[in-house]
Amino acid sequence: MGICSCSPIGQSQEGRGLAFLAVAPGIWSRRCWGGVSGGGRTESYSKNTGTQVSTMVLGPEQTMPDDSASGDHGDSASLGAINAAYSNSSLPQSTGQSEEPFTTYFDEKIAIPEEEYSCFSFRKLWAFTGPGFLMSIAYLDPGNIESDLQSGAVAGFKLLWVLLLATIVGLLLQRLAARLGVVTGLHLAEVCHRQYPKVPRIILWLMVELAIIGSDMQEVIGSAIAINLLSVGRVPLWGGVLITIADTFVFLFLDKYGLRKLEAFFGFLITVMALTFGYEYITVKPSQSQVLKGMFVPSCSGCKTPQIEQAVGIVGAVIMPHNMYLHSALVKSRQVNRANKQEVREANKYFFIESCIALFVSFIINVFVVSVFAEAFFGKTNEQVVDVCKNSSSPHAGLFPEDNSTLAVDIYKGGVVLGCYFGPAALYIWAVGILAAGQSSTMTGTYSGQFVMEGFLNLKWSRFARVILTRSIAIIPTLLVAVFQDVEHLTGMNDFLNVLQSLQLPFALIPILTFTSLRPVMNDFSNGIGWRIAGGILVLIVSSINMYFVVVYVQELGHIVLYVVAAVISVAYLGFVFYLGWQCLIALGMSFLDCGHTYHLGLTAQPELYLLNTVDADSLISR
């Protein structure tokens, strides 16, 4: 293939020197030469500055100037040689630079023990363990816990198989996110910054930020409710919100004591959730045969609209959009020589094994919650619960209406009914589990926000400034509801926030499938035809399921003005999703969709070698 390298056109503020572009000959013919067989030089000009740019075109037998200095003397098809646009700008170990162009506050890199190659090594697995468990926190946040308990109360054990399938789909999507980070040395937001044009990039950033803020609100709500339950109502909900703001600042600085200590702290919080919700499981003693049947028999006999909506809600709660961005960034914390394909393959393998273990643990914890409420409260009426709460002298008996309607629970009422039926210990242990879920997911949500802002905008904000901004946006509406309304309205916000998460899901799934299918981005590690087809089907199914969830929610608005607003937003939303989908289909190889756009937004005759938005001199100067 033809390779063009841009000579120095201005150094960045950090003085990082040259950046290289790897493009197909047919593509570069629009900017440089086409069909190059030998070396040569050509001249081009920056369209905005008039700056002359000297461009060197290498023949098939020539090497990049930095190849010999990179320390990669192995396979000539290494990532450092072929995928120079990514490897040379992101591999400090290959170029001798001291930092990556997009640095984060994960300054520490975990070294991988050097051993002779073997099929499996526990030492290496331990070295790679960490990012997957931080990623799995999103599968255990308060929104997921509420979805779990509602699933058990509404449908019993019948939807456990939906939870299992959603977790497996989530694992496959997380695999793509981790591979993107390992292979390119860039996380998803950074790749979006390089590949999408400015306007779509900004819109995409806003959508992802909205998803992160919505998730943040759910986590704050969960923590505030847990604090209220633990204090027996002495700390009001708004007080719990303020406490959550304060302790987030404290916990976020744990990484200053070492990345492994931070990962250990998250492991501790996951252990707390496993023990607390496991205690509830042992206390309630659900039928094991019913648990296994619900998990492995995909049926839902007698299910009506509420159960179907709950099944859709499970998928929306489990697969979180910001988690793709987070996981692709977290894997950068390990020292992997991306110019060595064997090391990249090994990293992909161990990260996938770790993700399997982490999501298995999260799945078991979710099963605990579903099973507890399926066994104890499925089919219960409010009147039955009120009688039990009165007999147990619970101060919360007035929380439920005295009628024969089916019991409706949330994370607050769930703790109350556990206390009524199984004693105060069940209530407080439940609250501890919810607090651990809220605190851990609040921290990972802030990390996600930092990565997304840094990646999309190439903007370096301190953690303090980042937390102040996102916490203000997330806290203000939550605090207002907590002050002026009751717990019913606060937990009711979770329904709206779950819809918000569902709406944002395509803005993570489509880009991750797009870029992991592009050879200029992933080289030999790009998705094969099987993964492209399977990934496309998964993205389509998950997005369709979540859109159904949104439509059901909109139908319940009940006001003509709200319908009009929803219609206008829907047109803009679907238009942007269509644009991203079009780009994804191009990346998947559907060349007939190429419109030959001037700015490389269409296809080329070689879609597998196509860059959506080839980096040019102007973008290099701006960086």
| Strand arrangement across the biggest beta sheet | 2-1-4-3
By DSSP (H or I, 4+ residues per run), the number of helices equals 26
Query: Level of helix content?
Result: 55-70%
How would you characterize the largest beta sheet?
Answer: 4 strands, antiparallel
CATH topology of the largest domain: Amino acid/polyamine transporter I
- Radius of gyration (CA) equals 26 Å
The tally of strands reads 4
Which class best fits the helix and strand makeup? mainly alpha
Strand content range: under 5%
- Quick check: average pLDDT? 76
CATH superfamily of the largest domain, called what?
Amino acid/polyamine transporter I
Give the distance, in angstroms, between the N- and C-terminal Cα atoms: 27 Å
N-to-C series of helices and strands: EEHEEHHHHHHHHHHHHHHHHHHHHHHHHH
Instruction: Please state the second-level CATH architecture of the largest domain.
Output: Up-down Bundle
**Which stretches of 5+ consecutive residues score pLDDT under 50?**
1-105, 597-623
How many structural domains can be distinguished in the coordinates?
2
CATH class of the largest domain: Mainly Alpha
* Spatial shape: globular
Transmembrane segments: 152-173, 235-253, 265-282, 351-374, 416-437, 464-483, 503-521, 533-554, 560-582
Main location: membrane
Subcellular location: Late endosome membrane; Lysosome membrane
Membrane topology: Multi-pass membrane protein
